């Protein structure tokens, strides 16, 4: 090494932490800690584990990450629950973002509700009917929750919306694509979630009447995505109601008769999606 040059391991820990905050959880867990002591210390810093995004990782037993994880922590087989516990422990209660993969269980979500009290962003996979029943009680624990992403509307959405309204005072963003929005669902949004700033119902069954209810009550919306929805067309009345919304995405919307679906068929579709 020439005079004046520095090794990576000589960097200040704060600088390493700022860099490592931008890498994936897989590298934080099994790759970076093996380089040197300073890298290991930085990779274990709670700030690096503030955003827990597990969605794009490969958890198959034969994946390179699963093999590296089992070797690194001397466990006989990979367990997502074990990885989640590690991530939650390293976050030291400061995790602000949690995005769970489809492999996650209700027990994993319960763990997160107990150990990650400061969540601001939560992304949930598709849920079973039994799991849906437990979601409102868990959501109520995250007082700082601002954004919820959920794959298709849960069957108890009215209850969920009420819990959010009563407990999550800064909640502002809801993403619930591929849903069947009925009269009671539009009412729940208009009544309990009328302070939303962002709402994503793209690729949903959304009748015109329900859309107008939402537009009439959610007057603080800054972004509304209803792209590729079935049940309405963006006519002059709809555009007029949405005129104050800064970003109104409505491309690809169709009336029911344009696709061959009827209301009952969309309801049946929702059951399978959930």
Automatic annotation (TrEMBL):
<dbReference type="InterPro" id="IPR036047">
    <property type="entry name" value="F-box-like_dom_sf"/>
</dbReference>
<dbReference type="InterPro" id="IPR032675">
    <property type="entry name" value="LRR_dom_sf"/>
</dbReference>
<protein>
    <submittedName>
        <fullName>F-box/LRR-repeat protein</fullName>
    </submittedName>
</protein>
């Amino acid at each position: 090494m020439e005079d004046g040059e520095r090794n990576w391991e000589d960097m200040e820990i704060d600088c390493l932490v700022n860099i490592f905050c931008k890498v994936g959880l897989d590298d934080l867990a099994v790759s970076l800690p093996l380089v040197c002591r300073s890298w290991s210390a930085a990779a274990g810093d709670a700030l690096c584990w503030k955003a827990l995004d597990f969605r794009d990782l490969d958890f198959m037993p034969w994946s390179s990450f699963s093999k590296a994880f089992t070797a690194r922590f001397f466990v006989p087989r990979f367990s997502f629950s074990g990885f989640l516990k590690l991530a939650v422990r390293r976050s030291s209660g400061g995790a602000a973002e949690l995005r769970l993969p489809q492999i996650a269980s209700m027990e994993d979500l319960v763990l997160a509700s107990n150990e990650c009290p400061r969540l601001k962003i939560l992304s949930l996979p598709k849920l079973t009917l039994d799991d849906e029943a437990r979601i409102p009680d868990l959501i109520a624990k995250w007082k700082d929750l601002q954004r919820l992403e959920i794959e298709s509307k849960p069957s108890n959405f009215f209850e969920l919306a009420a819990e959010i309204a009563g407990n999550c005072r800064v909640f502002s963003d809801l993403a619930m694509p591929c849903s069947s929005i009925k009269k009671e669902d539009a009412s729940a949004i208009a009544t309990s979630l009328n302070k939303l700033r962002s709402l994503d119902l793209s690729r949903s069954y959304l009748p015109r009447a329900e859309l107008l209810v939402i537009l009439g009550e959610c007057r603080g919306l800054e972004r509304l995505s209803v792209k590729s929805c079935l049940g309405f067309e963006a006519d002059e009345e709809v555009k007029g109601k949405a005129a104050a919304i800064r970003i109104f995405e409505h491309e690809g919307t169709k009336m029911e008769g344009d696709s061959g679906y009827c209301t009952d068929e969309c309801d049946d579709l929702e059951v399978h999606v959930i």
